[in-house]
UniProtKB/TrEMBL annotation:
<dbReference type="Pfam" id="PF00162">
    <property type="entry name" value="PGK"/>
</dbReference>
<dbReference type="GO" id="GO:0004618">
    <property type="term" value="F:phosphoglycerate kinase activity"/>
</dbReference>
<comment type="similarity">
    <text>Belongs to the phosphoglycerate kinase family.</text>
</comment>
<keyword id="KW-0324">Glycolysis</keyword>
<comment type="subunit">
    <text>Monomer.</text>
</comment>
<keyword id="KW-0547">Nucleotide-binding</keyword>
<dbReference type="GO" id="GO:0006096">
    <property type="term" value="P:glycolytic process"/>
</dbReference>
<feature type="binding site">
    <location>
        <begin position="21"/>
        <end position="23"/>
    </location>
    <ligand>
        <name>substrate</name>
    </ligand>
</feature>
<feature type="binding site">
    <location>
        <begin position="59"/>
        <end position="62"/>
    </location>
    <ligand>
        <name>substrate</name>
    </ligand>
</feature>
<feature type="binding site">
    <location>
        <begin position="349"/>
        <end position="352"/>
    </location>
    <ligand>
        <name>ATP</name>
    </ligand>
</feature>
<feature type="binding site">
    <location>
        <position position="118"/>
    </location>
    <ligand>
        <name>substrate</name>
    </ligand>
</feature>
<keyword id="KW-0963">Cytoplasm</keyword>
<dbReference type="InterPro" id="IPR015824">
    <property type="entry name" value="Phosphoglycerate_kinase_N"/>
</dbReference>
<keyword id="KW-0418">Kinase</keyword>
<feature type="binding site">
    <location>
        <position position="36"/>
    </location>
    <ligand>
        <name>substrate</name>
    </ligand>
</feature>
<dbReference type="GO" id="GO:0005524">
    <property type="term" value="F:ATP binding"/>
</dbReference>
<dbReference type="GO" id="GO:0006094">
    <property type="term" value="P:gluconeogenesis"/>
</dbReference>
Amino acid sequence: MNKLTLQEVDVKGKRILVRVDFNVPMQDGKVTDDTRIRAALPTIKYLVEEEAKVILITHLGRPKGQYKEELKLDPVAQRLADVLHMQVGKVNGVVGEAVKQAVDQLKPGEVLLLENVRFEPGEKANDAEFAAQLAELADIYVNDAFGTAHRAHASTAGVAKHLTAAAGFLMEKEIEAMGQALTDPQHPFSAILGGAKVSDKIGVINNLLNKVDALIIGGGMANTFLQAQGLDMADSLVEKEKLEAARVIMQQAEKQGVKLLLPVDVVVAEEVSADSSHKTVAVDQVPAGWKAVDIGDSTVQLFTEQIRQSRTIIWNGPMGVFEMEPFAGGTNALARAMAEVEGTTIVGGGDSVAAVEKTGVASQLTHISTGGGASLEFLEGKELPGIAALTDK
Ligand code: ADP
Ligand code: MG
């Protein structure tokens, strides 16, 4: 890792501004899922034990630079206190006199949560003045919010210009796990790509094509590849304007000796609805008016064989409309196959992670990325502003 990490800075007695991603789902003023809060606990607990003065900053929802009563962070502070088993202070602002005073009163080992940073218009604008004000609150900056690392905002990028800036433990784990797979993978290295659209994933495909031994394509985007090969996918989701791009990718794979696996059979339905009639057909037998909504059993077998041979696997994008039970079979089967692989297994992407967690095998995989959009951009090989802004070693 070429960026400074939390372990490498002396934090004792210092004011540490930690950007966390506590953008948690809420309902009726209560946190309904605290996964993201728990994901930041290693960093927060370490800082408490090292007797740092911990100042946490996060966004919640989309208040668009305005104060929004329902997006205040008091319930988040409460939940953090519950899982930390200690008191967590909370101020009603992000910068300004009241915040400075609260920070001044912090004792070593205490934790303070600032108000929703997106109440401030300077956050998304990455306003230089606002970033400088944030920096004044602390001696050292730590970024543990991988999920927002693809955004160049004041609390993720701007503030880091003014302070020593280190990666928190969660951030470090994300960069190490995915970075290792992309730069120095154990072979055979396979990527499984799915999800709705080719257009969302072209960047990921192109980056991974240069690195993998096998590319497995399923989900909605496989339809565009199959149609590009001359098959008739009937009413399936096909991106006509991406047929040429799909052809280019297939040629490129062949040229580079990358094994490209596409579905050989699919589950088709008359409607994308859980109670629709459905059946499994060969990819050249999709009936007029029907839609491919999952990969079929023969495809599961074909893909599973490739998965079993692999030592590194990166998965992004479900194999079908997994939100509906009848069309979740392919995604579930591949998740289970991946769980049995002894090498490195990584899942990134919002829906992919949700799918794997639903399958119940998440704990058997090497790394489940906490960032949806951020992990996609990482897999595209892009430099994420929140990582780029950290202090170089
Ligand atoms: P991720 O969030 O992991 O990056 P995507 O957002 O790209 O994944 O894709 C997930 C979506 O793709 C899901 O909502 C799923 O229903 C949809 N999807 C998968 N297969 C198909 C298909 N055959 N037809 C239509 N939609 C599909
Ligand atoms: Mg998604």
